Amino acid sequence: MEDIKQIIKEKYSEIANQTKEQNAPSCCGAVSCCSVVDYSVFSENYDNLEGYAPDADLGLGCGLPTEYAGIQPGNTVLDLGSGAGNDCFVARALVGENGYVAGIDFTEAMVEKARANARKLGYSNVDFILGDIENIPVKWGVVDVVISNCVLNLVPDKQKAFSEISRILKQGGHFCISDVVLEGELPKGLKDDAAMYAGCVSGALPKADYLTLIRDAGFVNVEVKKQKKIELPDDLLLNYMSTGELEKFKTGETGIFSITVVGKKPEGCGCGCSCS
Predict the structure, then answer these.
(1) 10 Å Cβ neighbour count for 25?
(2) What is the pLDDT of residues 48-74, one digit of tens each?
């Protein structure tokens, strides 16, 4: 797991120093061995969203987590895997001057870039913190809304990550997460490729398992709000399977999807903590 984390950190450090246009022609968001993939098959269009800051958009998301997050003025919002700050700045427009938004990322270069973007925008109620999603550096029960965009699939211990999300949320708080999931089984070569793990594919769980993991962490009212199939090009998939296997893969029930899912922490969390 630590090896995977190091690969992801190195890859996203590279991405942090590139533009959205430079990141687009690759499955991993940076020029690599992964053939040529238009990363826009994952990402969504932010152009019409209030608070959108193009300099913070590296084209790495797979949804719009703020769209269904129910963020209210004055809320405290935490973005997991905040990158250059894109979703944090959209969330900041929703919480207003009296709210607070923090982003957590474990890549130093991303945190530095996000802080620079916040300074440039003049925001005093948006912070960026260096930290690991499996051990979030935030107190019990202080967050109203957790958002995340195409990041949880990169976390090796997803059970620990959702447990941490539950810990930091207030009772009655909720999350909205956009992520990549699977229907059916990926080819073994694709599943085992660490570079493709960093590209948000081989780290993805089957959709049913992903939703079960969320419910097992104690969340209620779990619902998929949006789903979109992601088509990877043949030349990439042929690195991991034969022509015959590719045909079966494309015509079968197996698929890669981006989903946006919401869930709520119950009012009585039963954790024995001091969350309010």
Answers:
(1) 15
(2) 899 999 999 888 888 999 999 999 999
The predicted model scores a pTM of 0.83
Whole-number Cα distances in Å, 191 to 202, 227, 232: 4, 21, 14
- In the prediction, which pLDDT does 8 show? 60
Place of tokens 């001057």: 97
Q: Is there a contact between 129 and 107 (Cβ–Cβ < 8 Å)?
A: no
Q: Name which of 179, 202, 152 is nearest 258 in CA terms.
A: 179
> What does residue 157 show for φ and ψ, rounded to 5 degrees?
-105, 85
Please give the Cα distance from 195 to 106 (Å, whole number).
18
Q: What is the pLDDT of residue 154?
A: 83
As a whole number of angstroms, the distance between CA 82 and CA 70 comes to 18
Q: Quick check: 142 and 38 in contact, CB under 8 A?
A: no
Do you know the residue count of the chain? 276
CA trace torsion 9, 11, 13, 19 (10° rounding): -150
Give the β-pairing of 100-105 and 169-183: unpaired
Q: Which CATH number fits domain 2-264: 3.40.50.2000, 3.40.718.10, 3.20.20.210, 3.40.50.150?
A: 3.40.50.150
Of 97, 93, 105, 16, nearest to 59 by C-alpha is 16
CA dihedral 128, 162, 65, 273 (to 10 degrees): -70
The string of pLDDT tens digits covering residues 162-177 is 999 999 999 999 999 9
Q: Give the domain ranges of the chain.
A: 2-264
Give 230's strand partners: 256
Q: Which amino acid is at 85?
A: G
Structure tokens at 246: 């590719």
Q: Residue 10 contacts by C-beta under 8 Å, 6 or more apart in sequence?
A: none
Instruction: Determine the Cα–Cα distance for residues 140 and 193; give it in Å rounded to an integer.
Output: 36
Retrieve residue 175's tokens: 């999350």
